[in-house]
User: What shape does this take?
Amino acid sequence: MMRNVFGTGEQAKEPVYLKLIDQLAPLYSKVGVDYRQMRTILEMKMTMDSRKEAVIQGMGSNAKQNEEKNHFFSSLWVYAIISVFLLFLFVYDNWVFQYTTYFSYIFIMLFSTMLANFSNILLDTKDAELIGTKPVSQKTIGAAKATHIGIYLVSFTFAVGLAVMLATFYFNGILAGLLIIFLTFLSSLWALGLTIIMYSTVLKHFDGEKLKNIIAYSQIGVSIFMVMGYYLMGQIFEVIDPETFLVEMNLSVGHALLFPMWFVAPFGLLQEGIQTVYIVYTLFLIAGTVAIGILYNLNSDKIDSNLQKMDKAKAKLSSRSFLENGTAKLLSFSSLEKAYYHFTWQLTKNEREFKTRLYPSIASAMIFPLFMFFSSLRGDQPITSQNTQTFLYLPYFTMLAIPMIAVATQFSVNYKGRWLFELSPKHAKGPFLRAVTKVMLVKILFPMYGLISLLIVILTGFIYSVQLLNGFLLMSAILYFEMKRSSQGLPFSRKYAASEANQGCMASLIFFIPVFVISLAMILLQSFVPYAEWGVLVALIALNAWWMKKGFNK
Amino acid sequence: MKPIVELVDVTKQFDGTPVLKGVTFSVMPGEIIGYIGPNGAGKSTTVKIILGMLKKDAGTIRLFDQPLDPNDVTYKARIGYVPENAELYETLTAKEYLLFVGELYGMEEKEIVERAVQMMDALGIKDAFHGRLSSFSKGMRQKVLIISSLIHDPDILFWDEPLSGLDANSVQIIKELLAKLKQEGKTIFYSSHVMDTVEKLSDRILILHDGHVVADGPFSELKKEAAGTLEQLFNTLTGFDQHEALAEQFLKGMKGEITHDA
Assistant: This one.
């Protein structure tokens, strides 16, 4: 029986996940991990996650600080509810179709959460100094980090998959139900294992400044891979009779690379009996799992032993680009705001943790529009005969990145530098928030929206340019409202912890509804009311001019 | 007697910039070594390499009469370390943090708590045992770090700026403590910029400059090379004699009298 050091009192109850992990102690020991040490580290990390950092010195004796609550776990129900929409799958009788859609969804959710929210925990360099100097092996530190993230990732996956798992027991029987539980669990281990292998390989082979860039690129690369995967997945099935919900599967050799399909093959065997393609894919699943296990074991100690490289990279000479100077002059209305504009621009340019957190979300927000754009090209008809107005929807989807931006700008690894802002006069909060919002608009949203719009302009010409401009102005206004709604104190003043991980994700999911409604209203208004686009343009220019000048003042 | 720490021609570079260009020195058991050098000279890098936090590029290191093996971490149980930056897991209480550290050294809870309370009492912070580290002053955090480096009764201490943030009384206690630890046969290797303390406490002083050890010996011997205090010796060996001119330049900069190109 392990004792419990951390917790609010002597009688603190031991969390379920610790009891479960205790069952795996022999497995950890077998692969060379000191289980006792690993558990101590894990317990400490989970305790820290459940505590908010005291913002003001002297809060030590405050009763409020003793409130312990892990916000990650207490917000998982939102995912469980949102994922109920997957239940539509059960109207189809084809198990392979059901679970292909399910695992595609699970993997997209898993990878975007893993990359955006847990990369920083994996790449945290503080442990090297505080734990690495004690007689703890890199393997043990690596296992503690992986298990720490694993606890969150597995809980997250089960929340996302809960509805489908329960429905599987009801519709497809106990055997299929047990299989889906096992494979859902396995999918979260895959996401964790593949991410660790990717980072350890990158850390091993690159140095210095290049390393930081490669990490950002590898995250974007995974996101692009997800878009391509989704696109290919879409080709596998065809609904041949919508009335009877009959689907036909067209598998080709190329689809063998889509590993979520490997997770589906056992269901094919279960429903349709022995078929070569399902046997081959099931064997791929087994081989893949073994390969990830071996590669993880070979690389699990490489992350921490190479992490110091990140902090030792030579700082690049910082200079203000033409774009930075130009937009600062154009968009800042006071010298104080301009100073904050440059500060935000440079901070977001240099802080690795900021990029690690935001870039994967940007890539995920681009998935929908890019996927839909390219799938609409797939049709047999020439583009000119298609209803090109449907393209106008696409850039609106980039709005899904807005909640992530609003969350990302709250945190900084150098959060202690907040004393600088705290010392500045009180009215500085308005200019600071305005500057941060403007930088995010120019640096993040404009390139995203611009890219999709450019693709549309290439296809349709300039006939929709006013509508596209209106879309951007709307996005800018929504960014303002979201930043205002979510701002808690000053930007870049909070410390990031694992339990904060799903903050932005959840906001993004909830955001989906207003985005859909607003986009629809905009499109309908501009399509059916003559000259409405010009009216909308004037209204949006006025709204944007107002927030850019006076927003955040209260 | 054999050295407890031995470095021969150790080199290290970051992103193509050499930091250590061939550092060689040895430390005998029971010695107090003051390891000094200008900012960025590589003092912390040396310690981090010895502690296995960084990999050396070349050279050999022996610890406890054994070659340093990066795959074997057991030697770290005999080392106590105070890092340069007072980094702690701030949302933990002092008790939790010290228990955490003690556990990593394989100690039992009762033993850790008894030792921690007594040491905290001696340093005047016993009442803060259950307080969160985030609410501690810089000096209090430094004391917790010092305690965490000694809680397992190590053989050798690597202390980087151990007196940083401590009040005068606590500095006195730590100085006494160092003398007593030496009597116990402990080896102490510490870096500091407070020359006065280094001069008085160290059996031997190592001065690191431009990636090399440029002086190694007791202060009484080093004095022969350049008369005066350790501070003056340090300035001579690191080739630094422009204090007044630089202070003047700084002041002009503050007043907007610009003499240099931006």
In short: The mean pLDDT of chain B is 88. The longest helix of chain B spans residues 168-183. The interface with chain A takes residues 14-17, 48, 51-55, 70-71, 73-77, 79, 81, 83, 85, 87-92, 96, 99-101, 103-106, 109, 128, 131-132, 134-137 of chain B (CB under 8 Å).
